[in-house]
Amino acid sequence: MHFGNNVTIGRYTEIRPSSYYGVGNIGSGLKMGDNSSIGPYGFIGCSGKIIIGENVMIGPRVSLFAENHNFSNEDTTIKAQGVSNKGIVIEDDCWIGSGVIILDGVRIGSGSVIGAGTLVNKDIPKNSVVYDKRNRTIKDR
Fold first, then answer.
1. 74: left (phi > 0), else alpha (psi -120 to 50), else beta?
2. Is 2 among the catalytic positions?
3. pLDDT at residue 90 in the model
4. Residue 26: what pLDDT?
5. Which residues contact 89 (CB under 8 A, 6 or more apart)?
6. How far apart are CA 7 and CA 99, in angstroms?
7. pLDDT beneath 50: ranges in the chain
8. What share of residues in the chain are helix, strand, coil (percent, to 5)?
9. What is the pLDDT of residues 113-137, one digit of tens each?
10. What is the pTM of this model?
C-alpha cells in the first residue's frame, strides 16, 4: 500500500489486500494520490491493484472490488476455480458518492462524478456525471 500526502481514511473502513474468500494470494494493493479521501464504512478489496488518483473524494459506504470469481466450469466448485484480477483505476479529481459499488476492471476518467448508490461495472469517460444504476452517462461536466 502506498499513500500520498494528506490522505484520509474514514473510520471503520476496511482495506483488504487479499481474497476475501481465501481463494487467492496476497493481493496487488492500493495506491492513493495526494489529497484523496475515503469516507467511513468503506470496503477496499485490493487483491487486484487499485489506483486512486489525486484530489479524489470517496463518500461513506463505498465498496471497491478488484477481484471477480471464475465460474464457467460447472464440473467444479466456484471456489475451486479461483479469481481474476483486472484492477480498478479512479483518475484525478473525481467525486464518488455514498454507497457506490465499483467492480473489477473499471477505469473512472478524471473529473467524473458518480452519484450515490450507483453500481459501476464499466469504464466511465473523463468528466462524466453518472447517477443511475445502469452506468448511463447523463451529461458531461
1. alpha
2. no
3. 98
4. 72
5. 50, 51, 53, 106, 107, 108
6. 20
7. none
8. 0, 35, 65
9. 999 999 999 999 999 999 875 656 6
10. 0.89
